[in-house]
Structures are given as C-alpha cells and as structure tokens.
User: Which sequence fits this backbone?
C-alpha cells in the first residue's frame, strides 16, 4: 500500500504539479483512505522522500557497528554510500524526484533538513571517535560536512545525467578526494615497500621531488622552510604515486 | 520601524513563545499596521533573522571583489567572517535567537535554508576560480561546505557560552583549520627563505624530515614510495613550521 501511495503521488505530481496535488487526490487515486496515508507519511513532503527514514536508520546502525573501526574517516565515507545505494536502487524514480525537488522550494527545504540529519549522524560518530584529540568537535563537523558535500556533488552529477553512468564510481572518486584531504590512511592491502638509499639533490626554489637512483622505492622531497604546504603536498602526492584518480584533486 | 518590529517580536517570542505569537500581536505591540510588517519581512520567520539578506549581499559583494584574489580559499574564509561580524554586532540578541531557534523546528529549517544560501555563494565563487582545474566543482563544493561547518562550529560554541569570550579568535582558529587542510598558501607577509644545500640522510621505514646542516632554510623529506600520504604530510607540515595552532589538527 505504501508503494501504491508513492506511485499515485508521483503520477499526480508529474501530471498537475506538486502544489496542485492534495493528499485527498493521492489517496483517491491509490484507492485508500486518508488515514492510510498518514500511517506511512507524516505529511505530503514525506511521500516524496519515502526511504530516508529507513536509510538514516541503516546509516546509524552502520556507524554504531564501527565504534572501534581503525579509520573513522573511511567509516563515514562508507556510511555516506548508504544514501547513494538508496538513490541507485531506482534511478528513474530518483531522477524524477530530483527534477521535482528543484522546482518546489518547500521540497528543497525539506531535503535540506534531511541532509542535515545525515550530516549530524556522521558528525556525531566522528565527535565520539575524536573526543580525546585536539579540536575534536571541529574536526568532526568539518569532515562530516566535507563528506556530505562530496557525496552530494557526485550524486547531483549523476542525477543531472538522468541516472546514466556509474554512480558508484563517481561517488567513489568524490569520497576519495575527502579521504585524501583529511588524512585517511591507505587501504590495509597496500604492500609495504622496502627502503633504498636516496641520492642527494640540489634544493631548487620550488619544492622538488626525485626518485632515488638505484630503486623506485624512495622519494626525496626538498623544500624551502616556509614554502607553501599545499605546493609541497602536491609534489609529494604525485611522487608517492597511488591512485591517480585521487592524486592532484585538492 | 524595522527595529521596533524586531524588538516587539522578540519580546513576545520570549514571553509567550514563538508559535503562540501572531504577526497581529507583533504589529499591535509595535504600534504599526500589518502592511508595515510585510514591507520589511516576507513572513514571521523573517523577523527572527532580520539581517541575513544584508549579510548575504555583503558577502557576495566581497566575493565579487576578489575575482582575481591570489588565494581563493583564504577569500572564502574571509567572506565567512561577514556572518560572524553580523552575529558579534549584537551578542545579546544573537544568543536569544540561538536559544529560540533551537526550540522551534520551523526556525531551524529556515536557518538551514539561509545557511545553504551562504554555502552556495561561497561554492559559486570557488567554482569560477577552480573552473580550469581538475575536479573544479567537487573541490569548490567540498571547501565551501568545510568553511561553513568550521565557521558554524565556532559560532555555535560562542553562542552556547552566551556570547562570552572572543568570537573572532574562535572563528579564526576554526577557519585556519580549513585553510591548512585545503592547502591555502601562507600569508603574504611570510618572508621567502633562501635555499641552502641539503645533506643526504638515510631513508627510514617511516617518512623522516630533517633540516639541512648549514642552515635552517631547507627541509628534506625522505619517504618510501607507497607510504601513506597523510603520514608524510604530517611530517612535512610540522617541519615547514608555520602556525602551531593550525598544525597537527587534521
């Protein structure tokens, strides 16, 4: 009955517009009473986002299960993917809703409130994990916001393309960007490399990176003290190799 | 008359509650007609946040004026301070509103929509600045979200302390955190150091940083290829010096 209500609602929203559709119209088309509608949805906005409560509960459970996870930043990135999965389950429906939400300010406000709840769930987890470190709540709030922004940037791109393309790959790329920026350690399967002696090099004006002669295993970075950190990091990042999709994006 | 309406509204909100106060009550206490209210505020929520439109216009003008600013990340951090200034202009009023907003879900939703507009203004500026680089919109959205989250983390801390303490210092610290994470170059007054030759050092298992003998000007970083970027960056960051308050917080 829940699915029938959602289907009837979207048919009417598309035919006559969101504002012009009443709850009475929806229940009439679905062939049920008003009370049935309110059993499933607190208000008309609710039928537009029928799966967010379930998704938020899933995300919270996933975070609770990672209370001792070694990498909290990775955990919140993985948690964000719960939302992606919900959208990707039904691309046609997600794309329809995206266009509807863009047109109706009330739905946009509703969606912002939902996004805020996801962000607070992620931040709450990180605040607990960072509780003993310096600036714990600040770091938690900033990382949670960055994860949500990255996820939604990728999700919106996919929705704008009418659900074409690989949503998972797009979101992976965006989340890797955040993991790199906030210092998430690499995946445990990355093999440790054995060190080899470096060769002295002459310090240039800008930071320079050179592979040591006699091996690919060692990277030497020479930088002036006071050099901009961002420039040094850029060089180190590209020299260390790793995922080229993640490198150079910040 | 605008100020009189705001003062009357808040007196009533505090005395009898936000929901229980009508626009008619407000105009009666202020001694004006309903039309005057709507000349200044589109709805009852508007009187709770009377300065956001002005503040948003100020922020947008500040961003527009920085279309060629050398450091876009710093520019958006400075732009965010426009909001802080508005709150700090009248601490007692800001604290009152904070407590009111926490209690009224409708006001919370309204505030989220306002925050979203600030965030889009910052992201829009960064998107233009990053248009030619890789992942321009992703970087822009993530940094804008991080700036807003850092600013609001500090702002909320100050509001929770009833407006005691130095709001500027708290927000400065939070924004520095974002500037560090997203690779903002150092302040222009930092003197450039002249390079001196480095001394070869033996590569250890973990990345190592050493000042060159014969001078404090050069930093040599040796890292295994495949080493975690976050660990290398941590070392580079502390070796390059700079603000100890910003270092080591991510």
Assistant:
């Amino acid at each position: 009955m829940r699915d029938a209500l959602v289907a009837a609602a979207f048919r009417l929203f598309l035919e006559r517009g969101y504002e012009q559709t009443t709850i009475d119209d929806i229940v009439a088309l679905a062939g049920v009473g008003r009370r049935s509608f309110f059993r499933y949805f607190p208000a008309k906005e609710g039928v537009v986002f029928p799966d967010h409560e379930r998704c938020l509960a899933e995300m919270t459970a996933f975070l609770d299960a990672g209370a001792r996870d070694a990498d909290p930043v990775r955990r919140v990135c993985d948690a964000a993917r719960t939302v992606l999965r919900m959208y990707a389950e039904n691309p046609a429906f997600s794309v329809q809703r995206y266009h509807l939400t863009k047109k109706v300010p009330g739905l946009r406000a509703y969606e912002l409130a939902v996004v805020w709840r996801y962000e607070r769930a992620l931040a709450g987890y990180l605040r607990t994990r960072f509780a003993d470190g310096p600036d714990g709540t600040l770091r938690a709030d900033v990382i949670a916001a960055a994860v949500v922004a990255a996820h939604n940037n990728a999700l919106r791109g996919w929705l704008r393309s009418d659900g074409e393309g690989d949503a998972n790959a797009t979101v992976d790329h965006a989340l890797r960007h955040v993991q790199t920026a906030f210092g998430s350690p690499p995946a445990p399967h990355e093999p440790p490399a054995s060190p080899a002696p470096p060769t002295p090099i002459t310090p240039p004006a800008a930071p320079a990176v050179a592979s040591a002669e006699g091996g690919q295993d060692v990277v030497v970075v020479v930088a002036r003290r006071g050099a901009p950190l961002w420039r040094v990091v850029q060089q180190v990042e590209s020299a260390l190799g790793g995922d080229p999709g993640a490198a150079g994006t910040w």
